[in-house]
Amino acid sequence: MKAAVIVFPGLNRDRDMIAALTKIGGEKPAVVWHQDADIPDADLIVIPGGFSYGDHLRCGAIAARSPIMDKVRERAARGTKVLGVCNGFQILIEAGLLPGALMRNTSLKFVCREVKLEVTNADTDFTRGYTKGQIIRCPVAHHDGNYFADAETLKRLEGDGRVAFRYAEGTNPNGSINDIAGILNEQKNVLGLMPHPENLIEAAHGGDDGRALFASVLKQVA
Amino acid sequence: MTLRNDIAITPDLVASHGLKPDEYQKILDLIGREPTYTELGIFSAMWNEHCSYKSSKKWLRTLPTKGPRVIQGPGENAGVVDIGDGQAVVFKMESHNHPSYIEPYQGAATGVGGILRDVFTMGARPVAAMNALRFGAPDHEKTRHLVSGVVAGVGGYGNSFGVPTVGGEVEFDARYNGNNLVNAFAAGLADTDKIFYSKAEGVGLPVVYLGAKTGRDGVGGATMASAEFGDDIEEKRPTVQVGDPFTEKRLLEACLELMQTGAVIAIQDMGAAGLTCSAVEMGAKGDLGIELDLDKVPVREERMTAYEMMLSESQERMLMVLHPEKEAAARKVFEKWELDFATVGKTTDDLRFRVIWQGDEVANLPIKELGDEAPEYDRPWTEPKAPTPLAKDDVPQMDVADALLALVGGHQCSSRRWVYEQYDTLIQGNTMQRPGGDAGVIRVEGHDTKGLAFSSDVNPRYCEANPYEGGKQAVAECWRNLTATGAEPLAATDNLNFGNPERPEIMGQFVKAIEGIGEACRVLEFPIVSGNVSLYNETNGRGILPTPTIGGVGLLPEWEKSVGIGFVAENQPILLIGGPAARGTHLGQSVYLRDLFGRRDGDAPHVDLAAEKKTGDFVRKLIRSGVVTACHDLSDGGLGVGLAEMAVAGGIGANVTEVEGNDPILTFFGEDQGRYVVTLNLDPQGDEIAKLWKEAEALGIFAPWIGTTGGSMLTLGGAKPVAVATLKAAYESWFPDYMAGEPSL
Are B188 and B90 in contact (CB under 8 A)? Predict the structure, then answer.
């Protein structure tokens, strides 16, 4: 399997993501700079977290309009798996690859803590390593993770099994509607989520609940 | 020599630049003519307290700064310490007190930005940050606003930049009502053979400017930070800089990439006193002159004067001397990261600092005298008044369980979660111990087992009562906190925050605190490798508590063997290691006295440095042998609060005995020094623990078995048991309740 990580200026969890993909997949992913003409052949494209373009304008808005995102859209349409974490999720939404919006946390503060996630749909290439309803631990670290969508979009997301992860046991850290932590596109080959599974993949992190996500998607595309 | 000058120099103008008449006379004698307005600004920037250390230099020289692992001590952007395997840790702590009081968000943010830049200027990628914050009394009208702004500013910058905040301090005291303290620490990792310095070498080489454009923000910031506050504080807002972590992040990546190309001869970040200070330092250190052409400087605003450009403290800027033949490679890096850059001058062999603006020379000064040979004072100081110790029978009484709850639920000892959850503590994926314990721990990337521990400490109550003992205690507590994770303390950085040094009693505090710091550093083999002095922390003549913050770094050969503070299992024996046989004896200057009885009397606790060393070495050995399951050093609130923190962190209770014949208040709330509480995975009746005790006895270390973990209650001697859940609720609720405006002061 081949993975590629897209890097925009201001992203800062790219190193964490590259480390996780390398440790779990056994192979270093290709690193794609935003000005590169194209994305090398890859089965999984990852947009990591951080503060692309300093969060100026709106989180993810500037990166989403970068030419490299046209390539991401093309690949996604062809069925390549795309994963966006935190700022990556914000970029996917701004790029129109996922519906809804990510607003400022209701606390109006940045929040970095561990939360509980419920795996709402375990029947996707990203989540097959978990079981439906499983509760996992996962850290969050963001200022703008308050997911919102209109009633009709929500109905479709919920009805079509497109909510992949939900904050569980009262740990919603940001006010997201329906406790939504991560969502899929219609074809279920694009996943965006606010929490950072890449920061909980080994004993040194105090747990490895995030590992199965990478193991699933890397295995699926092997 | 005639230089262009547009503004007449008057005595008022000189005074408004913070220069005393005798200092101005020194300028006249030095250059043999009246300075231009730009030159006056340059002198003011270089000779102020903040940049010149003119009141403190004499005393700073007495600190131990060398050691077998020290690669670079004070005098560079940050200290450099060898951690083996060709790797080094690069670190420093610096204050941003004055700006953070005037404009808390930007003041704190740029404090973080400044210290990060100091670290990556030396070629190190920042891997950990800490912040020691001190605010006025919780009920003071400005405190909430300042806490909220400073914490958001620290987080706003550090989170975006991408460095984990692994530790720090937050403390409240009415003595900081008019001057809060923001001391920012950063540490980075570098290869020992790839450290970069600020000393310029070679004549006629290009001086290159990199980073953000120069604007009018922060003009005169360093001079502002070298004076006390009066009623005109609001007018000082324009002297505060504005931070842009996005540019800083790009600057970091660009600098590290650039250093790989071999193009960099010397590099210096533009911090306090901006372009002036960085250019002068590079030249003066290399015994070279520097010529700057200001018309080449990238500017954010039109019609900036030479004076404004030389004194601007716009953030995220670097100055470097490059190998001319590698300029093309350097250019490629700058363009990739979309940063402004320009060749703004050259090195010369005339030891002059020359500034050209609009084709005219507006400054021509001797560079050495501006920099290394700035004025130096031996300010008069008085011996601090010896504190009166508490009378032996002066032990104000309170129910032990009630006192414990009040302390863990009070502003001094309660959880700082509200603060550190606004900081990214996990980024980079190497954080092994997050804030809330004794020290933050990270693993060292590129090595299988190595870790680093970080702690920041000082007890200003002790320093006020007894500056010498307080100085010792700050170092000892930092050393102890690192030890409590199993780390070997390597070296420290000091951030010395005091009032007006022109007052002999303040200077006396400074002198004695340094004496104590130096003594402790020598005995504990814990050299000071970098630091910063912040004086004039006064408002309308009222000074802060003397606050010499110590930021320390420790090395863990195997991070897997480090331990945290939380109880990990039931039925484990609890040992108190170190201190006197009565367990607790010293109540003077304790939190118990201050927060429960409103008393600030007595002497600070004495630190027996030889015992400290012996005890710490013993505890570290135990941790590394694998028998210790949790370890916590005892500080504010003594044994009682220490045990409560261990119980709350682990969610497990404990039953602890009291000492016959000793007042339980002293046993549980005395703040005697040099003590650790450990839990062991040993049978308390077994041979192994007996061996441990024998060893402790041979070393003269007191290590009694004081209790056992287990259950859901914490029971301190004969006091009524307190549910761990109740302790936790009190411990966790003070900060959020306070910030929400609840009246639980």
Answer: yes
Q: Which residues contact B424 (CB under 8 A, 6 or more apart)?
A: A110, A112, A141, B155, B158, B159, B162, B163, B164, B165
Question: Cβ–Cβ of B160/A19 closer than 8 Å?
Answer: no
* Structure tokens given for B436: 């809330």
Sequence-separated (6 or more) residues with CB below 8 Å from residue B235: none
Quick: pLDDT tens for B509-519. Answer: 999 999 999 99
User: Which of B250, B420, B421 lies closest to A9 in CB terms?
Assistant: B250
Chain segment B165-195, per-residue pLDDT in tens = 999 999 999 999 999 999 999 999 999 999 9
For the question of residue B140 being annotated catalytic, the response is no
In the DSSP assignment, the letter for residue B326 is: G
Question: What are the φ and ψ backbone dihedral angles of B735, each rounded to 5 degrees?
Answer: -65, -55
DSSP summary character for residue B229: B
Interatomic CA distance for residues B137 and B150, integer angstroms: 15
Helix (H, G, I), strand (E, B) or coil at B208: strand
- Measured in whole angstroms, how far is the alpha carbon of residue B564 from the centre of its chain? 22
Please write the tens of the pLDDT for every residue from B272-304. Answer: 888 999 999 999 999 999 999 999 999 998 899
Q: The complex's ipTM?
A: 0.96
Residue B508, token pair as written in the block: 């006396």
pTM: 0.96
Cα Rg for chain A, rounded, in angstroms?
A: 16
The pair of three-digit structure tokens given for residue B506, joined into one six-digit string: 């303040």
- The answer to whether B419 and B735 are in contact (CB under 8 A) is yes
In chain A, which residues have their Cβ closer than 8 Å to the Cβ of B338? 9
Q: Phi, psi (5° rounding) for residue A3?
A: -120, 150
- Taking only the tens place, the pLDDT of each residue in B356-408 is 999 999 999 999 988 776 888 999 999 999 999 999 999 999 999 999 999 99
**Residue in the block written with tokens 């409240």:** B172
Catalytic residue among B50, B98, B411, B586: B50
User: Is residue B575 a contact partner of residue B703, using CB atoms and an 8 Å limit?
Assistant: yes
